[in-house]
Amino acid sequence: MNFRRIEWIFLVAFVVLDIFLIFMFVQTSSTTSAKPSRDTVTTVISEMRADNISFKNPDNKEGTGYYIAGSNDSGLKKHTSQLSEQNTRVQSNGKLTSTLRDPQTIDKKNAKQELTAFIKQSGNVINGDQYVYDDQQSSDGDYVFVQKVADGEILTNTGQIRITVDKDNQLTGYTQSYVAHVKTLREKAVTISEKKALVALYQYNQVSNNSRIVWGRLGYSRLLQLKDSSVYVPTWIFAVRSKNSSNVSLHRINAFTGASMKSNTTSTTENEASSLETAAGLIW
Predict the structure, then answer these.
(1) Distance (Å) of CA 155 to CA 136, 146, 218
(2) pTM of the entire structure?
(3) Residue 54 Cα distances to 68, 213, 214, 275, angstroms
(4) Is 214 left (phi over 0), alpha (psi -120 to 50) or beta?
């Protein structure tokens, strides 16, 4: 009886996902004709310059990506026994918090390499080899690794390791979130270019006059959360800093449809903003 009930639960879940994907396919098809033409893009870019919005020339190349799904249960709790010399607890949302019993000294000049080596040891971090260092979201003393999925990375806090190194260069602990059982839901599809995403950002009034686009990058964000699983979609994420402010706000554009997604705003110090701006990788 219990097995049959489980079968029905999985069947209903897959039906819901299929309905959602059909809806998104129709929406994507209907919005394709509404995507800005090359002339419109050029005009809007000129308008942004006239509004004193500063940014480096965005890439005009289209990319590709998937709809992907993953479990809302991180599964970290059942693997904590593999961790050594740590005090850990797992919150109700699946996020793991660890405090090292014996803090480790980190050479900040080689922090990326040393912390990468640290997380790849199974006794230190669960599934650590599935994460990569993220220059843009890291700052002095706060180092971020993001989870690799499909052909990109998850750029939200659902798939992230954040490591704390104190002022004495001691690695004291970390937090980890993880998306388990990741799978692609459809064949790979074309994503809009960085330039078109930037135009959409402006047309949705998410960037004000006299502001600066600090950086832009393509990754995965959660689009839909169901009871047991979530759907992720390729997303253009832009970090925007307003005039006379050290705060950087993150804005998201669906890279399939060009639609605006719910924004997550983070406040940073001037030094952190500078770190984001000068980091290597996908910064313009």
Answers:
(1) 11, 7, 9
(2) 0.78
(3) 34, 6, 9, 18
(4) alpha
Q: Are 170 and 77 in a shared domain?
A: yes
Of 284, 225, 282, 221, which Cα lies nearest the Cα of 255?
A: 221
More confident residue, 247 or 212: 212
One domain, residues 269 and 137: no
Q: Which residues pair with 165 in a beta bridge?
A: 171
Q: Between the CA of residue 51 and those of 166, 189, 195, what are the distances in Å?
A: 41, 34, 17
The boundaries of the domain holding residue 155 are 73-182
Shortest CA distance to 60 belongs to which of 253, 258, 197?
A: 197
Q: pLDDT at residue 284 above 50?
A: no
pLDDT for position 88 = 96
Contact, 55 vs 213, CB < 8 A? yes
pLDDT of residue 227: 87
Is the CB of residue 120 less than 8 Å from the CB of residue 129? yes
Residue ending a domain, among 139, 165, 182, is: 182
Of 66-80, 146-160, 236-250, the least confident:
236-250
On whether the CB atoms of residues 207 and 53 are closer than 8 A, the answer is: yes
Which domain-ending residue is among 116, 147, 182? Answer: 182
Report the candidate in 142, 145, 273 with the shortest Cα–Cα distance to residue 215.
Answer: 273
The answer as to whether 6 is a domain residue is no
* CA distances from residue 214 to 101, 202, 211, 275 in whole angstroms, order as listed: 38, 14, 9, 10
Whole-number CA gyration radius for the chain: 21
Residues 145 and 57 in one domain: no
Helix (H/G/I), strand (E/B), else coil: 182: strand
What is the predicted pLDDT for the residue at 50? 92
